[in-house]
Each structure stands twice: as C-alpha cells, then as structure tokens.
C-alpha cells in the first residue's frame, strides 16, 4: 500500500474495504498499443476513461498512473462536490453573462449525474447534497457574503442562495466564532477516497486496462502519440492528460499553473457533540479567508477540516514534502478547536495533505496540444471533485472527435492568465503565499498587518490573478 494511504484518512478508510481496495494493477512491462492512452489516474483521467467507454465500449483504453489510482489530490481532498455557483462572479468576469450561466448550469448537471452514477454503480461514497455555507469566522470577514449574493442577483440565480444571520446559521452549525454567512443550495459532500476507488473498480470491470506504479514521461506537441514509461511505451491514436499539479514541470504548463499545498486534519467520531452544535446534516462550510479553511462532517460523526495555500514550491516540482506539512496540519487542528471548543478533547486521528494545481483565473481549463492528438484538463485550484467529471466528459468527446454542449463551454480552449516566468514564478508564489497566510492569521487574531505583508498579500490581485485578498 502506498505511504499516503497510511496517513490520508480517506484512503485508509476506503482501502480497508475489499470493494474499494480492489486487486493490484500491474506496472506496464513492455510495449503496447491502444486507441486512447490516459496519463493520470485521478478523477480527470478516470472520468475520461469512463466516458470514453460509455461512448464506445469497443475502444481500447489504457490508463497509466504513477502511484495508485486516486492517490493524488483526488483521494486526499475535502470531498466538497460543488458546481460553479459560488464562482459565478469570477465566471461572469471571465466569460460574460451567457458564459457564466452556461458554466453554472453545467456544474449543476454534473452534480446530478454524479449522484446518479454512485447509485447506479453501487458506490457508497457517503454522498449528501445538502448545500454548502460560506461563513465569516472573524470580525474582519463580516460582509463576505455580499459579493456572491450581489452577483447572484445580477445573473438571476439568487434563488439558489440564502443569506444567513447568526441565528439562521446556528440552526445549521453553531460556533462561537461564526458571525453569519450565506448558503448555496447547490452542492454537497462525498467520501473522496471511496469515490475514487469505486470509480477505479468500475473501470476495470468495463475493460479499461489500468497500469499503476507507472510514471509517464511528459508529453509535448507531436503528430503522433507515444507515451514512454520506465517499463515500456504506449502508442495510441489519441491521448488524454490529467496529471494535476505535476504538470507544472511540463513544457507549456509551467507558466499556466503553480502548485500550492492544502492540508487536512480529522477528528475521532463524536456524533453526540455534532448533535450538540446542530451540525447534523451533510452541509459543508468554508470561511471567507483568502487562505481558505473548509470543513465538513462524515457519516461516522467526525469533523474534517482543511486549510488552503499553506505551501508553495521554489522550483515547480512536487516533492514528498507536499504530502505532509507540520505547520499546515497544525493550523487545521487549531481551526477545529477554535471553531468548536467542545471538540478540544476529541482526539485527532489523522493529518495529511498534498498539492493542488492553481490557475491564474481559479478556473480549470481544457485544451488540445498542437498536433491535435493530445488533450488535457488542468487548473482546478482545489475545486475539482465535481468539475473533474465535467472535464473528463469533455476530454472523452475531444479524443473521439465529437462536438457536444460540453465541448462548447468557455473553459474549452481557454487561454488562462499566464504566471510570470522563472525564477519570478516560483519565488513569487512562495513569498506571496506566505504573506497571504500570515495576513489572514493576524486578522483572525485581531492584530494589525504590517505594510510589507499587506503589499505582498495583495500583489497577485494587482497583477490580475484571482489569488489573495
């Protein structure tokens, strides 16, 4: 079993069940051919494989994964399965009214399709569609609900939103530091490890050839597809790439995404304490910090909380240090205790983390490399559980030459805002990342922020990126 499965609670729990653990997949040995080769065994690659086989069960699909399927961000995330309602403002700015509404509608349809898929395929991934809440968790965050609600009214989708005063918020979840917020009825939660491993099981059952522990060399523009691995090569008519933050070192992607770390902690079960704070539905929560904190409950009565933006990379490369960060996971534990003092004596059972692929627009983008045979989806910025299903559907259509409503969405062939060249990209990401976290922490504690930290934290926004305050 991979080391990350021993530290990531989601994967540890999923892999304890035979239906999610599954039989080991071999590493690629020797050369082979396929109709479509997929690089990356996370949600993007696996959903692309699923949609390819649904479109044409006779397709020969090979999937290559450097570790085990679902052991990257797909299995380690917070399990928020949302669409695009709470990103409507960014989408409106990027794509205009019609483009924003098309994305919002596609996201809502994706959640419905995922719910049906889990039911139809017998995957018990603890899915709940109870919405999610943005909250002000410190005085300086008051009013954080105003912008999303104003955008919703402008787009005519405000029936999906509800402003919550303190009393209304307490009926969903009571915390001494929550000061109001807003509910988005779209969205829910899922056990990300079970979803990833359940999808892997179904792919094997429908005939996808899965090779694990098979790292692939980066692909670039080419008239033909030949994927090289340590044990052999795969020649195919088409390729799909969904390698998340690891694509930051690939030619052509280093200036389009940067890697940041996100870290989580999870408590032991304490359902009676959840009942005491009224948190008895599957509603999930995030706060209005720039370095966001996101939290949810589990079916066995735990609180899982994550913190974003805790680690950058000086080189763009993803090293083992991304899997665990003492400071980041400590911040997650501290936030649980600050939000819910009654959980201070509930044991913390696991702490873990990993990289996410951050785009300058905070939105994923899909495209095809020159040559027309290699298709990619990347840039989820930590919001990929739902959108990866949509992107996988788009990539499957691209690889089979089909035009659909999804392939006409504005994230397809979108050119994201490029990050600065090296060394400014990696150095800048690390420095501004630290400034954003430091600024948020000081504001949470009611302290002032020095001018240098304030300047650095706000620099990405001044440069046109949807990052920071």
Globally, the shape reads globular
CATH superfamily of the domain at 129-191 and 257-359, by name, is D-Amino Acid Oxidase, subunit A, domain 2
Structural class: alpha/beta
- What count of helical segments does DSSP give? 14
For the termini, the CA-CA separation is 40 Å
Question: What name is given to the CATH topology of the domain at 129-191 and 257-359?
Answer: D-Amino Acid Oxidase, Chain A, domain 2
* Average pLDDT reading: 92
| SSE order | HHHEHEHHEHEHEHEEEEHEEEHEEEHHH
The CATH level-2 architecture of the domain at 129-191 and 257-359 is identified as 2-Layer Sandwich
Main β-sheet: number of strands, strand sense, barrel status? 8 strands, mixed
The beta-strand count equals 15
Instruction: Give the low-pLDDT segments.
Output: none
Percent of residues in beta strands: 15-25%
Question: Which radius of gyration do the C-alpha atoms yield?
Answer: 21 Å
At the first level of CATH, the class of the domain at 129-191 and 257-359 is: Alpha Beta
Strands of the widest sheet, in order across it, are 4-5-3-10-11-12-9-13
Helix content estimate: 25-40%
């Amino acid at each position: 079993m991979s080391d990350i499965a021993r530290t990531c609670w989601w994967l540890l729990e999923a892999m304890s069940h035979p239906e999610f653990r599954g039989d080991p997949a071999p590493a690629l040995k020797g050369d082979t051919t396929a109709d479509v080769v997929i690089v990356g065994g996370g949600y993007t690659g696996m959903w692309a494989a699923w949609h390819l086989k649904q479109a044409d069960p006779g397709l020969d699909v090979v999937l290559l994964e450097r570790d085990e399927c679902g052991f990257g961000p797909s299995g380690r995330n917070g399990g928020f399965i949302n669409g695009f309602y709470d990103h409507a403002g960014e989408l409106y700015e990027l794509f205009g009214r019609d483009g924003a509404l098309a994305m919002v509608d596609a996201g809502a349809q994706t959640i419905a399709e995922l719910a049906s898929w889990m039911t139809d395929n017998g995957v018990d991934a603890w899915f709940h569609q109870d919405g999610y809440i943005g909250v002000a968790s410190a005085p300086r965050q008051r009013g954080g609900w105003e912008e999303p609600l104003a955008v919703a009214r402008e787009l005519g989708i405000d029936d999906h939103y509800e402003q919550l005063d303190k009393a209304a918020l307490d009926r969903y979840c009571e915390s001494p530091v929550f000061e109001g917020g807003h509910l988005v009825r779209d969205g829910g939660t899922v056990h990300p490890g079970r979803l990833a491993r359940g999808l892997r099981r179904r792919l094997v059952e429908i005939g996808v050839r899965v090779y694990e522990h098979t790292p692939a060399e980066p692909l670039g523009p080419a008239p033909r597809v030949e994927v090289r691995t340590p044990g052999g090569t795969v020649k195919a008519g088409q390729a799909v790439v969904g390698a998340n933050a690891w694509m930051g070192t690939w030619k052509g992607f280093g200036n389009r995404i940067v890697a940041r770390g996100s870290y989580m902690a999870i408590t032991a079960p304490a359902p009676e304490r959840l009942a005491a704070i009224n948190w008895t539905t599957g509603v999930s929560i995030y706060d209005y910090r720039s370095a966001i904190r996101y939290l949810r409950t589990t079916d066995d009565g735990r609180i899982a909380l994550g913190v974003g933006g805790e680690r950058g990379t000086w080189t763009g490369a993803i090293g083992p240090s991304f899997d665990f960060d003492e400071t980041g996971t400590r911040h997650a534990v501290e936030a649980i205790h600050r939000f819910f003092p009654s959980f201070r004596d509930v044991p913390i059972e696991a702490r873990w983390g990993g990289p996410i692929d951050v785009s300058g627009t905070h939105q994923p983008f899909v495209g095809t490399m020159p040559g027309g045979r290699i298709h990619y989806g990347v840039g989820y910025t930590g919001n990929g559980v739902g959108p990866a299903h949509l992107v996988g559907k788009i990539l499957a259509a691209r690889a089979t030459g089909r035009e659909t409503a999804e392939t006409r969405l504005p994230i397809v062939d979108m050119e994201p805002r490029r990050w600065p060249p090296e060394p400014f990209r990696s150095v800048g990401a690390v420095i501004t990342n630290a400034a954003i976290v430091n600024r948020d922490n000081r504001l949470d504690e009611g302290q002032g922020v020095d001018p240098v930290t304030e300047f650095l934290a706000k620099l990405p926004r001044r440069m046109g990126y949807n990052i920071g305050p």
